[in-house]
Amino acid sequence: MKRIYTHSDVLHCELIDSVAEEFINMCSIKTGDFDNVAKCKYEVPDYWTIGEVYERLIEDVQTNENVDSIIETLFKVYNSWISDSISRFSTDFYYQNRDYIKECFLTNKQIA
Question: Which pTM does this prediction carry?
């Protein structure tokens, strides 16, 4: 992750499938059934749009510009309960404004 983040200024010009394939091979990630989009009964936003929600949340909760700290925050967000809530596109949570999503993450619960 540090390599991808550090070289993002160059890698963003590459095709995302190419970068993903390189990362998968480099990390020896095993083949599996990870296609949660095919199982959906509703339209799913594209990965750029989904990525924006995560990017804003990571920016909003990140307190240190150190690369290691940013990557640690990235893992914290993706491994938290909020990732499941963001990925449940049939609810309105994904579509909430960034301040609301940030507060939910910081309080560790969905705010009514």
Answer: 0.67
